Amino acid sequence: MSEVTVDNVAEILQNDSAVKVAGVDVDGQLRGKLMAKKKFLSIVTEGFGFCSVIFGWDMHDQTYFKELGISNKENGYRDIVAVPDLNSFRRIPWENNVPFFLVSFFDPDTREALFACPRGLLNTAVSKAEEAGYQAMAGAEYEFYQFRTPGNHPTPERNASSTATFLKENPVEALPPLTEGMFGYSITRPIHNQDYYYGVFNACESFRCEIEGWHTESGPGVYEAALQFGEAKEMADKAGLFKYVVKAIGTKHGITPAFMAKPRQGLPGNSGHIHISLMKDGKNAFFRDTPDPSPPYPDVAHLSDLGRHFLAGVLTGLPDIMPLFAPTINSYKRLVENFWAPVTVSWGLEHRAASVRVITPPTASPKATRLEVRVPGADCNPHLALAAIVALGWKGVEKKLEIPVPPLSKGEDMGGASDQGARLAKSLKEATVRFTDKDSMAREVFGDAFVEHFGGTREHEVRLWEEAVTDWEVRRYIETV
């Protein structure tokens, strides 16, 4: 695809009548509109006004209980500035190839990146490493459940909100999974829904959020996708757009993908693992050319000093940034002992029970040396999660931090608590208190403005949960108390 610039964008869009644009909110949702081509071309350099309320309400468009800095009654929910990123140009294959651009949000007074804009936050985090000559590289993996709405057939008239409608009238456990039973890496199960399965893969290829691996995971109706490795800012865009593809294609087939961290009790949750490394002069900067003869731990014999400091930064700051990895009430239902999810500040060479899995030779090639951060769930905002990883890791490099805990023993139970590393937050409320603490490392790497804003959005989520009356409560107490 040709590079899109201010000079050639009109030519590239010459046969189009409209353009779709979208930005990313703090929950990772795409918020956008269809715009006439003439209008788009008139704002392509200076940007256009976008209602700031997308940073003043939650994922269901309810205004936050607490008045936050960007959008509030005092400023009249004023406009912010949305500027198209021409490098993000794509065409949406399932919408007649309409042109698509991502936008970033800017303060209308200063024209600086809006402090809560996820794309802007990641750009700032990555730029610090780039100024030192390093390029951040990343990969993302998503597990997610898929459900069908009973009696709903994939027709053009299908109501995309039918799953929500169904759940208003039926218990959640009545929603049938796409496939039954536990069958990870099955090569026959996808044939049951072949048009959907290949439709997602091909749409991702056309929409520039390419899938590297695509298979069933262990769980009813669970699939896993590994996205193709690439530059960190592009990877975050692709991860967010991958969810968009799956939901859009799912709509056409009567399927509801669920990226909740834990849709089903008693079954493994949905992870959103993130891989990270730094490159310099075309070489992997995490790889040590000659194995260290006397490393602090054998697990890092092949990891460079820079890689060790980066790992130390991530581990040191991990407890303070948990709301960015686990942003919902449901996130913490996944992060429980012995369910294939890490719950401590922990790391280890090729250790899948640890919060950070170190991947180096001999099991990986030098160019594939990297860290896999295994705490994030599929429900996290990939821009914010990657920003946290890069910002913490680079702070470790700047401060030359030492790895704070020894590697997790290979004998540890899967996901079990470690005597060596602190237990991570068990709830969003606990995580948010730690995140917003005056001494939080989140404030050090992101600044007070972002921490106060995002912390306020999580306090809103906690309050809604604390006021909710759940099915579990009613079933347990309606007759017995």
UniProtKB/TrEMBL annotation:
Similarity-based family: Belongs to the glutamine synthetase family.
Protein's name in the database: Glutamine synthetase
Positions of transmembrane segments: none
SUPFAM superfamilies the record matches: Glutamine synthetase, N-terminal domain (SSF54368), Glutamine synthetase/guanido kinase (SSF55931)
Alphabetical keyword list: ATP-binding, Ligase, Nucleotide-binding
GO BP annotations, alphabetical order: biogenic amine metabolic process; glutamine biosynthetic process
Pfam families xref list: Gln-synt_C
Family annotation (PANTHER family): GAMMA-GLUTAMYLPUTRESCINE SYNTHETASE, TYPE-1 GLUTAMINE SYNTHETASE 2
All residue ranges annotated as the GS catalytic domain in the record: 118-481
Source organism (scientific name): Aspergillus glaucus CBS 516.65
